[in-house]
Specification:
The radius of gyration is 17 Å and the shape is globular. Strands 1-4-5-6-7-8-9-10 form an 8-stranded parallel β-barrel, surrounded by 7 helices. It has a two-stranded antiparallel sheet with strand order 2-3. Helix 3 crosses helix 5 and helix 3 packs parallel to helix 12. With 260 residues, it is of the alpha/beta class. The protein contains 12 helices and 10 strands. The structure holds indole-3-glycerol phosphate. One of its GO terms (biological process) is L-tryptophan biosynthetic process. InterPro entries: Aldolase_TIM, Indole-3-glycerol_P_synth, Indole-3-glycerol_P_synth_dom, Indole-3-GlycerolPSynthase_CS, RibuloseP-bd_barrel.
């Protein structure tokens, strides 16, 4: 595991150990899960399926969006044609917050993935309580037993699971130990933070047909999408390049269609 990921997960374990004894926070009861994977599968049959990310900052880039407004960004992503949203809830490293997820989901009809570092199955109940429709499992961050436990907990909460891998070894572990048919290839190298779209191209060849593959990180133009389509991938997770645009709705349309 990269030093940074290890550090983030250690911080997260402390956070969870403080929250868990207090029980779930009393957020308003959320509506039933909206079907994250189903929305992606439906859109990907006829075109590009986009998970648009609400991301204020990151450890590698610092502040990405100064006038951060989760409700407005969620509505803009939906009008622009996104299939789903991703909302960062990790505070220490990404300046995220649970309230951003609640606000964003309330401002649109799209399914939302709670983007955080899952280290304990309990976080799945928490993700659902705040309205999440899916969670992320980062294979690099977990051992085989714990990741399967987190996946089971997610399924009990009726949450979909996006399984994130960076290389062949992680992909093999994911396919062997997890049931989810939604797998993301993160093009960002967690040790160097470099992004290389060739990572998706390489791993796409190894993924069975029943898996829906998501290309994550480093996508900024419609040509990037077309390049990935050559490798058979038409589902994307995009954050920074959209969050830096003044007009997020038009930028989303442009990313999806090449014009607008
Ligand atoms: O901002 P980008 O390069 O478009 O990347 C989005 C997304 O892939 C990235 O935010 C991400 C992928 N996996 C993660 C895990 C934790 C936090 C963030 C992420």
């Amino acid at each position: 595991m990269s030093d940074k990921l290890a550090e983030i997960c250690a911080t997260k374990r402390v956070e969870v150990s403080e929250r868990k004894p207090k029980g779930l926070r009393h957020w308003p009861t959320p509506s039933a899960p909206r079907g994250f994977e189903a929305a992606l599968r439906a859109k990907s049959q006829t075109g590009i399926a986009l998970i648009a990310e609400i991301k204020k900052a990151s450890p590698s880039k610092g502040l990405i969006r100064a006038d951060f407004d989760p409700a407005a960004h969620a509505a803009a992503y939906q009008s622009g044609g996104a299939a789903c949203l991703s909302v960062l809830t990790d505070a220490p490293y990404f300046q995220g917050h649970e309230d951003y997820l609640i606000t964003a989901r309330g401002a649109c009809d799209l399914p939302v993935i709670r983007k955080d570092f899952m280290v304990d199955p309990w976080q799945c109940a928490e993700a659902r309580a705040m309205g999440g429709d899916a969670i992320l499992i980062i294979v690099a961050a977990l051992d085989d037993v714990v990741m399967a436990e987190i996946e089971d907990a997610a399924r009990q909460e009726n949450l979909d699971v996006l399984v994130e891998v960076h290389d062949e070894t992680e992909l093999e572990r994911a396919l062997k130990h997890l049931k989810s048919k939604l797998v993301g290839v993160n093009n960002r190298n967690l040790k160097t933070f470099d992004v290389d779209l060739a990572t998706t191209e390489r791993l796409a060849k190894l993924v069975p047909d029943d898996i829906l593959l998501v290309c994550e990180s480093g996508i900024s133009t419609h040509s990037d999408c077309l390049r990935m389509a050559e490798a058979g991938v038409n589902t994307f997770l995009v954050g920074e390049s959209l969050m830096r645009q003044n007009d997020i709705m038009h930028a989303t349309k442009r990313l999806l269609t090449g014009h607008g």
